[in-house]
Every structure is written in structure tokens, then in C-alpha cells.
Amino acid sequence: MDDNELFNYYWINNLLISKIQFNEERMKNINNNKRPVVLFDTNFFLLPEQFKIDIFEQSKELLNTQEPIFIIFDKTINELEKLTKTNSKHSLAAKIGMLLLKKQEKSTNNDKLIIVNTNNETNYVDKLIIYHKNYLNIENYENFYIATQDKSLKLKLKEENTKLIVLAQKKILKFA
Questions:
Q1: Which residue from 16, 24, 76, 121 has the highest number of Cβ atoms inside 10 Å of its Cβ?
Q2: 93 contact partners, CB below 8 Å, separation of at least 6
Q3: 3-class SS at 111?
């Protein structure tokens, strides 16, 4: 599969976003440059509004680099978009999370923010995280982290010795 088959594009609120297919070869290429990689769970995009933090900037500080690679799934964007259209307590948080995502995408080149096209694998981001973590054998990658606040997902990932980034003391990101 060449790069032309891996990339396609779609629009989020008038912003053109590139999407890729995730595979082992691409992951190896990403990891060859030894930059830290952070895969975000949807709930991390609710933190900026709830706790007044910038998840991208704090991730850079935690990882001690200005050059991390951030990864999210297309289903994360779908979940955030659905939340923005509800009257739930998370609606505003989802809108702010989307704004922060757009800000990050505009301020970076495509190799720093990757949106993974998951096709129709599942609608549940947690299941996608587990699937891709296992499919890509991320334990083999020294600088790969999953950022989540989901208690059950954190427990499962910790059991599998996955490196995690979590919110601590309602104000800072830390390794778990």
C-alpha cells in the first residue's frame, strides 16, 4: 500500500484534516525518528474546559519535547461532534476540545497531528485503542503513550504494561 492509498481528507467545521490508515509499517516509520507518540482517548479532549488545561502543551512539557506526534482516531472526532450537539454537561467541553484540536492542527504540520481513519471497525474509541495497541505491538515502541482518564481502560492498559498519561490533581498531566 503506497502513501496515496493511505491518505484521504475530510472537513471538520471548514477545516481540512488529513486521515491515514494505521499499520505497522507506518508506525515503524513514525517511531524511527524516536519522537514521543501520544494516542489520545476522547475523554482527554474534555479536560481543557473542565480543568482549564491545554492537553497538547502539557503533553509537550511532560515529554520534554516540542516535537511529539499526537494521534487521535476519526471516531474521537465523531464522538466529540455528537457531544457538541447534545444538551449534556459535556457539550461545552466537547466544543472547546474541538477548538483546541483545530488550533493544534492549524499550528502544526501533518506529521505532528495524525488522525487515524478507522473505517468501520467499531464506534467505540476504547475498543479501537485496545485493538490498535495490540495490532501495532506498541509495547515494542519506547516512546508510545496513551492519554486517557477512563478508569476501566487505564486498568486494562496498566495490566498490559502500557505507558499512560493521565490528569493528576485536576491540573497537571503525569505518567501513570
A1: 76
A2: 45, 46, 47, 48, 49, 50, 83
A3: coil
* CA separation for the pair 107, 102 (Å, rounded): 9
Indicate if the pLDDT at residue 140 is higher than 80: no
For residue 33, the model assigns a pLDDT of 65
pLDDT per position as a tens digit, 109-121: 545 788 887 876 6
For CA atoms 17, 70, 174, 78, give the dihedral sign: positive
Which domain covers residue 162, as residue numbers? 3-175
Instruction: Check which CATH number belongs to the domain holding 25 and give it.
Output: 3.40.50.1010
- Number of folded domains that form the chain: 1
> What is the reported pTM?
0.81
Q: Taking a C-beta distance cutoff of 8 angstroms, is the pair 80, 45 a contact? A: yes
Dihedral sign of CA atoms 53, 11, 67, 167 in order? positive
* Whether residue 83 has pLDDT greater than 80: yes
pLDDT over threshold 80, residue 20: no
